[in-house]
Amino acid sequence: MQQYGILVTCWILLLVNNVIVTIAVDERSWIESYEIARSIVETMTIDEKVQLTISTNGPCTGNTAKTSRFPALCLNDGPMGVRGSKKTSVFTSGINAAASFDRELIYQRGVNIAQEFYDKGINVWLGPANDLLRNPRAGRNWEAFGEDPVLSGITTVETIKGAQSQGVIATVKHYTANNQETYRKHMSSNIDERTLHELYLWPFQRAVEAEVGAIMCGYNKVNDVYACENEELLTHDLREEMGFKGWVMSDWGATHSTAKAANAGLDMEMNLGRGNYYGDKLKTAVERGQVSLQTLNNMVERIVATFYKVGQDQNFPEVQVNTNIPVISGALLDPGVDVQRNHKEGIRKMGAASTILLRNRNNILPIRGDKLHERQIVVAGSDAGAGVLPPNSCPLNMCPDGSIAMGGGSGSAHYPYLITPLEGITERAKNEFIEVKAILQDTSLVSDVLTIVSTTVSAPDTCIVFGSAFAAEGIDRPFYGVDPQHLLIINHISNVCENTIVVIHSGAPIDLPFANHPNVKAIVWAGYPGQESGHALADILFGDINPSARLPFTIAKNYDDYPSDISLFEHEVSYKEKLLLGYRWFDAKGIDPLFEFGFGLSYTTFSYNDLQVQVLDKEHVEALISVRNIGQTSGAEVVQAYLSFPENAGEPPKVLRGFEKVFLEQDEEKIVSFQLLKTELSIWDTNTHTWIIPSPGQYTLHIGASSRDIRASAPFSL
Ligand code: NOJ
């Protein structure tokens, strides 16, 4: 293939015959990439062009056919790592990445995930997902980045930048308002224009600014038009308003028409095997004048240009997977090139950085041994250990057993191994002279639990009990709570063990009815942490790493406190809470959550001093605050900036506009700065259909340690 001009060179690693070598990849501008694409597409026949808009049979989740002028593309799931292939990693989930509030680690996670796709010869990563968490029961919350558009936007951007720096095309999905699994292929998300822009389009707009290569439109309808043939969304909002330059592919089977979809702005139909509406049907539509040749050329140019933009014409590896075979998982026919590198280190790091300490009464954590007297602790619950079925027992992780570290569906990957909490804790406890006793049966009799707990010799005795909520694509969770048998063991343990630490594996907010039990001294949310689950958890429990994660969603006291539900009777879902999603609703209605958005404890404490807010010009406000570690150990604080708009702007009481994670040694102080530019200062105006800065009026900037723990506020006017 012809080599084209070079703009920026970055270095990446390539696996040749299982040896990692470093090569240079050339990044191009969109302008240059489109010039190349045009010169190629004008030499293609119409048959070659339509081939590129459709899936064919092949080794990956999605495959385009090779033509004389352009290679075949391999598109593969998914957000937690390479789906359906061996010798790959199971990374931390999207919801964990968001919980870390750590830009650097999020970027590095994107790099590491993409390296595995690259090494397997996969051109297009079908991730990240950035659907907003609208309801706690939605089956796919764990794949994406939580309830707040700004947190989701920043997490999306860092992930994409990391991934695309490795020469892999990232795909943000599912465009848009794809927030439940119930009736996912038919339901309509009915949203007003302002809410759509300020919440559901926001993370996609940030992705476009980060030059994402591909966007996947969702199964659902938006305002009664299928997302994948919705001209308003695909052409008007995405291309004209946001300036998206890459291509739009449909979710698998989410295309419903030929001319309508093509004219609306859908570039590629994806489906199992061959598509139903593009390919030959698209050719006929062009010949009949229902779709113009120019439209077809534009569709194909977008795909080709994106390929050149990320430099995939330069030594991109051959496809090394065969993930699209109907398999009984564990018996994959994949050639199995080992692409794991040292990614387990990053997975463990992100696992610990995303484990949230929600409660820590009497400083029961971190667990410390007493070198003179051997202690014993109890680890309880089926979610603590290995299941009867080994990991990867069912396709797409749909029969979870034992500890939950990932969800199910296309967003799952193949475990190379799973370090269970019991393994991680036992290994680490040895160094502290602590013996671990396990009760892995959730249904263990109360009397048995009592005997084991009362015969431990620790002083004070400590029990770590586990509960989880498994969630998967295709089905929303039926209730807001841990799986019922887990509740049983949590109740047994907390009734008999004076010092109970509850650890939760869930991908979303979860009912914690035991939170105020006097024996429940600590609560830890570990999310879906991936293959290094037990190690990452032990790092936090034993204080090797100081917890610094924060809630990317609101945990309500009662499910009914949330503004939305998922109903079995509704295909037309009204987003009637409008802008009041998540904490915005709780703030506006004065409802106290159990644990608020942005909340998380540390083993140290921080003070905030001297907030200074300066209006630099009409579209630029700068805030500086000094943060000091006033506790007994080093640690990281997530400093959060919330904005209250002038009252007549019609905004929620306050909205997140930025955050910084700062690492501070004991007694160290740092100045943290926030820049609020037009994006942060604007609201969507439905009269002019543009972003406007509502002025004049008084704004207030709040800096805090969570959405309910504001440490300093300062007014300003524009
Ligand atoms: C359907 C899922 O919604 C999507 O996220 C995934 O990428 C495709 N299937 C392909 O597996």
Please give the structural blueprint.
Elements: E1 8-16, E2 19-27, H1 30-41, H2 46-51, E3 62-63, E4 74-76, H3 94-100, H4 103-119, E5 124-125, H5 149-164, E6 169-175, E7 188-190, H6 193-200, H7 202-209, E8 214-217, E9 221-222, E10 225-226, H8 231-241, E11 247-250, H9 259-264, H10 280-287, H11 293-309, H12 343-353, E12 356-360, E13 375-380, H13 421-430, E14 434-439, H14 446-454, E15 462-468, H15 484-496, E16 499-505, E17 520-525, H16 533-541, E18 572-574, H17 583-589, E19 606-617, E20 620-629, E21 635-644, E22 655-664, E23 669-676, H18 678-681, E24 683-685, E25 690-692, E26 698-706, E27 709-717
Parallel strand pairs: 4-5, 5-6, 6-8, 7-9, 7-18, 8-11, 13-14, 13-15, 15-16, 16-17
Antiparallel strand pairs: 1-2, 3-4, 9-10, 12-17, 19-20, 20-23, 21-22, 21-26, 24-25, 26-27
Q: Tell me about the biggest sheet?
A: 6 strands, mixed
Number of helical stretches of at least 4 residues = 18
| Overall SS class | alpha/beta
Count the E strands.
27
Gyration radius, in Å: 25 Å
What is the molecular shape?
A: globular
Order of strands in the sheet with the most strands? 3-4-5-6-8-11
The overall pLDDT, averaged over residues, is 93
User: Which ligands occur here?
Assistant: 1-deoxynojirimycin
Work out the strand percent. 15-25%
Helix content: 10-25%
Distance between the first and last residues' Cα? 54 Å
Uncertain segments are 1-24, 327-331
Pathway: Glycan metabolism; cellulose degradation
Organism: Phascolomyces articulosus
Subcellular location: Secreted
Family: Belongs to the glycosyl hydrolase 3 family.
